[in-house]
Design brief:
The protein is an alpha+beta fold. It has 18 helices and 16 strands. The chain folds into 2 domains: 14-62 and 97-343, BirA Bifunctional Protein, domain 2 (2-Layer Sandwich), CATH 3.30.930; 355-461, Rossmann fold. It is elongated, with a radius of gyration of 28 Å.
């Protein structure tokens, strides 16, 4: 009988785990270079913390946890009008939907323990009750960094730099898209729907998935008039260079202050960065808490969802009783980044093996000498294993082949007497005698050559 994982979740084999760790460590290294500090928050949050922070669409995707014990006690099922109403009475906790809202709670709870501006990063799993599909999972890792306690546009510029550094280190070619929620707020004012900004952003956020006309159809179902739709449509098809787009926006929003402020913020950020960005006026980031600059990253090389999202939130902590703290952050989608690197063949082949050399076990007292050699190699940062059982040589070499181990060492009576080990190269089958120093040099040179080959192959792909 096969016990499948829950839909939208996955097991990870050693090779996959090694590759994922490489992604996390690459991102973490850049975060550390910029002075961000690591925190962690619980997987489980009170629903009071999560509800109402992600809009109606997001709230539907919260994984709720049944209350402990007899959760139906004192519940009259005949009086419940909907499943949502029932869920609210039998569930008071849920799995975190993202890392940003729990971070806002964290800031309020630990406000006296942190220094502002507070630069934090967090690499942990999140859960969404979404429909699983390619590149979209119900359990996935987010790699977030945020700067809270400062409203300076310098922070946005630094985040753009972080984005460029991470994807450069991962050898992925991407497009960095930006917009500003103030521009979208101005659009809502322009069409006389300033109280419906959430409806507008949720709909616009679907343009890439369902197309412009279906987005407009969705807005029509929400009582947007033909005149309002006609005013909105030209905005969503603005084209040209970044400068041309901004010029058109200035004309459209010449009498709307919040729109001009959004344009100004984009221009200020552009002046501070050297990285290439694309102003995408259809970028909306449907989450309710964004208030300023918003970001998204797409791959230039393969068709997949966004690899990163984020933006400015001016008062997210206000919902937890501490108003007026502005923040801005980004979140790398590690799982989609993994899929990109995998499809493009960008992972280091060294990740496909666990050790550089395996010592064949001929039994006592030979295995004791093998353990001593292995300890000396590990002290030189060379990975190695000693086979734990005295089995047929073919069984032990088969183990090495399956793990991608490049060399095996034979240490028998002759090797102990001479001090020279018999080393077999698994790829060619060739054998030779090596002193310990010669073996050490061989393994280090092999590792060095593997790294150079990987770098050369990647440079050729670029």
């Amino acid at each position: 009988m096969t016990y499948n994982t829950a839909k939208g979740t996955r097991d990870f084999l050693p090779l996959q785990t090694s590759r994922r760790t490489f992604i996390f460590e690459t991102i973490k290294k850049v975060f550390n270079l910029h002075g961000f500090q690591n925190i962690e928050t619980p997987a489980i949050e009170n629903l009071a913390t999560l509800n109402g922070k992600y809009g109606q669409e997001g709230d539907k995707l919260l994984f709720r946890i049944l209350n402990s014990g007899n959760f139906l006690e004192n519940i009259d099922l005949s009086q419940q009008n909907s499943s949502k109403e029932l869920a609210n009475k039998i569930c008071d906790k849920g799995l975190r939907y993202d890392l940003t809202v729990p971070f806002a709670r964290f800031v309020v709870n630990h406000f006296n323990d942190i220094n502002l501006p507070f630069k934090r990063y967090q690499i942990q799993p999140v859960w969404r009750a979404d429909r699983p599909q390619k590149g979209r999972y119900r359990e996935f890792m987010q790699c977030d960094c945020d700067i809270i306690g400062s409203n300076s546009i310098v922070n946005e510029a630094e985040l753009i730099e972080i984005i460029e550094e991470v994807f450069s280190a991962l050898n992925l070619q991407v497009t960095i898209k930006v917009n500003n929620r103030k521009i979208l707020a101005a659009l809502a004012i322009l069409i006389g729907k300033e109280d419906c900004l959430t409806d507008i952003t949720i709909a616009i956020d679907k343009i890439e998935k369902i197309g412009l006309e279906k987005v407009l159809d969705e807005l029509r179902t929400k009582d947007f008039t033909p005149s309002q739709i006609d005013t909105l449509k030209p905005f969503l098809v603005i084209e040209g260079s970044n400068e041309e787009k901004l010029s058109q926006l200035k004309d459209i929003f010449r009498d709307i202050e919040i729109g001009l402020k959004g344009i100004e913020e984009i221009e200020q950020m552009k002046d501070l960065i050297s990285q290439e960005i694309e102003i995408d006026l259809t970028l909306a980031r449907g989450l309710n808490y964004y208030t300023g600059m918003i970001f998204e990253v797409k791959s230039k090389e393969i068709a997949i969802g966004s690899l990163l999202g984020g933006g400015r939130y001016d008062n997210l902590t206000g919902i937890f009783g501490h108003a007026g703290i502005s923040g801005v952050g980004i979140s790398f989608g590690a799982d989609r980044i993994y899929d990109c690197l995998d499809q493009l063949g960008r992972f280091d082949p060294k990740m496909e093996k666990s050790s550089d050399i395996l010592f064949i076990n001929f039994g006592f007292p030979y295995v004791k000498t093998c353990l001593q050699y292995a300890k000396r190699l590990r002290a030189e940062n060379i990975s190695c294993e000693v086979f734990p059982h005295e089995k047929q040589i073919s069984v032990q070499t088969s183990y090495a082949a399956k793990k991608g181990i490049s060399f095996v060492a034979y240490v028998g009576e002759d090797e102990i007497k001479s001090g020279n080990l018999t080393i077999k190269t698994m790829a060619s089958g060739e054998q030779g005698k090596y002193s310990f120093e010669q073996l050490k040099t061989l393994l280090k040179q092999t590792n060095s050559q593997t790294n150079k080959t990987y770098e050369l192959n990647n440079n050729c792909k670029d």
